[in-house]
């Protein structure tokens, strides 16, 4: 479908002839180019066709910062209801598998609309407010220090396997109000949920993933029942208290969906974001040396890394009525793919966006956590975890360097994005 938008001016020159029709036809969020360089894969779209229809996905793709930001903020024209729908439609065998587990996906904060959304958010948000989360800093720092100590004398590590997967999982479980007795199972289900929502599995693979999602759904119900019985502290116990006070606002289905999606959101995205931050910093040794010499640079480095390599590359909305985005008419019911990773590299907002700059003055304007009424409720926790992890690694292992020649592999996933491994080495001698 050729929308016929006049070509925008590209800093590198004019848009090539017929770029618009080719951009729409070629867009593939599961392809190697996009996985390795999401923002670069959409650079021509930002310049030539910032809003286009993808026949491959049946989505309108929005690539520029201002357009993405405006859609996020406009809760009247755009519904969040499709935010957690599988981007690849499920085949009937997968649906049948889910029905066998009694799977009943319902709205949670990220995929519900007003006025219900803000009513629930106000009641459920207090445990994740910045002031409450800040009280966890000492516990998170002690946890990170303990994990780093396990490999500090070894001289090499995979930061993902040895640190960045388990620590956010443990913190996520702590915040949710659950024991950390089964980290590996949480890791397994988080991967499956990401592929379920944002992957392109074959029909056969869909059944396998659906089986794992069904198991996670069933376990989530068991965990909610246990918390109802035993009590505790954390986000889910707080939600259970709200449920008992206002069962019409937070019912049992909502609690089970909170349990199922909340741990994945608290865990995988923070793991990916922190792994990306360390990859970015160690790929630019001068920035890593600066940060080690001056820990005050860490918060800025966190924001710049969230901008430079967003762990959530895109999110979704549905047009409630006929609407215009970036000069392009979108019909009522049209589904929009909001390309956060592209928006965070928009030259109109971030000069020289392909340069990783831990001193960038406006890095915090990134959209990695969304914006507006649906801005990520867990952003304070993610920022705290990333800051503490970077501070502890810089303090304890300033000589870190990337193992040469490694392949930073990414899951074939349109949105959740982060290197599966970050292999590092350092000198263990006193001089190192």
TrEMBL record:
<protein>
    <recommendedName>
        <fullName>Cytochrome P450</fullName>
    </recommendedName>
</protein>
<keyword id="KW-0408">Iron</keyword>
<keyword id="KW-0503">Monooxygenase</keyword>
<dbReference type="InterPro" id="IPR001128">
    <property type="entry name" value="Cyt_P450"/>
</dbReference>
<dbReference type="GO" id="GO:0016705">
    <property type="term" value="F:oxidoreductase activity, acting on paired donors, with incorporation or reduction of molecular oxygen"/>
</dbReference>
<dbReference type="GO" id="GO:0020037">
    <property type="term" value="F:heme binding"/>
</dbReference>
<keyword id="KW-0349">Heme</keyword>
<dbReference type="GO" id="GO:0004497">
    <property type="term" value="F:monooxygenase activity"/>
</dbReference>
<dbReference type="InterPro" id="IPR002397">
    <property type="entry name" value="Cyt_P450_B"/>
</dbReference>
<dbReference type="Pfam" id="PF00067">
    <property type="entry name" value="p450"/>
</dbReference>
<keyword id="KW-0560">Oxidoreductase</keyword>
<comment type="similarity">
    <text>Belongs to the cytochrome P450 family.</text>
</comment>
<keyword id="KW-0479">Metal-binding</keyword>
<dbReference type="InterPro" id="IPR036396">
    <property type="entry name" value="Cyt_P450_sf"/>
</dbReference>
<dbReference type="InterPro" id="IPR017972">
    <property type="entry name" value="Cyt_P450_CS"/>
</dbReference>
<dbReference type="GO" id="GO:0005506">
    <property type="term" value="F:iron ion binding"/>
</dbReference>
């Amino acid at each position: 479908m050729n929308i016929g938008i006049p070509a925008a001016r590209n800093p590198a020159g004019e848009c090539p002839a017929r770029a618009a029709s080719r951009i729409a036809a070629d867009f593939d969020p599961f392809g190697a180019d996009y996985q390795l360089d999401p923002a670069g894969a959409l650079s021509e779209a930002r310049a030539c066709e910032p809003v286009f229809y993808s026949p491959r996905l049946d989505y309108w793709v929005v690539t520029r910062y201002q357009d993405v930001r405006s859609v996020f903020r406009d809760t009247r024209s755009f519904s969040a209801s499709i935010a957690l729908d599988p981007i690849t439609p499920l085949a009937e065998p997968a649906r049948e598998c889910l029905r066998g587990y009694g799977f009943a996906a319902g709205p949670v904060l990220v995929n519900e609309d007003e006025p219900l959304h803000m009513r629930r958010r106000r009641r459920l948000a207090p445990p994740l407010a910045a002031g409450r989360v800040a009280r966890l800093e000492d516990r998170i720092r002690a946890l990170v220090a303990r994990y780093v100590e396990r490999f500090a004398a070894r001289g090499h590590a995979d930061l993902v396997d040895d640190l960045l997967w388990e620590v956010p999982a443990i913190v996520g479980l702590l915040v949710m109000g659950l024991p950390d007795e089964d980290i590996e199972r949480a890791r397994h289900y988080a991967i499956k949920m990401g592929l379920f929502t944002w992957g392109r599995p074959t029909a056969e693979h869909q059944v396998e993933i659906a089986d794992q999602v069904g198991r996670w759904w069933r376990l989530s119900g068991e965990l909610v029942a246990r918390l109802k019985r035993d009590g505790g502290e954390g986000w889910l116990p707080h939600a259970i208290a709200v449920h008992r006070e206002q069962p019409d606002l937070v019912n049992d289905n909502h609690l089970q969906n909170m349990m199922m999606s909340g741990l994945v959101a608290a865990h995988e995205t923070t793991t990916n974001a922190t792994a990306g931050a360390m990859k970015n910093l160690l790929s630019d040794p001068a920035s890593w040396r600066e940060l080690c010499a001056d820990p005050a640079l860490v918060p800025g480095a966190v924001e710049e890394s969230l901008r430079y390599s967003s762990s959530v590359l895109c999110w979704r909305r549905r047009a409630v009525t006929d609407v215009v985005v970036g000069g392009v008419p979108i019909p009522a019911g049209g589904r929009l793919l909001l390309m956060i990773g592209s928006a965070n590299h928009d030259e109109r907002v971030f000069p020289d966006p392909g340069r990783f700059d831990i001193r960038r003055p406006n890095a915090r304007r990134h959209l990695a956590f969304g914006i507006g009424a649906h801005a990520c409720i867990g952003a304070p926790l993610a920022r705290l975890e990333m800051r503490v992890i970077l501070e502890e690694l810089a303090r304890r292992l300033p000589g870190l360097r990337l193992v040469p020649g490694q392949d930073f592999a990414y899951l074939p996933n349109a949105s959740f994005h982060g290197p599966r491994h970050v292999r590092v080495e350092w000198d263990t001698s006193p001089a190192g």
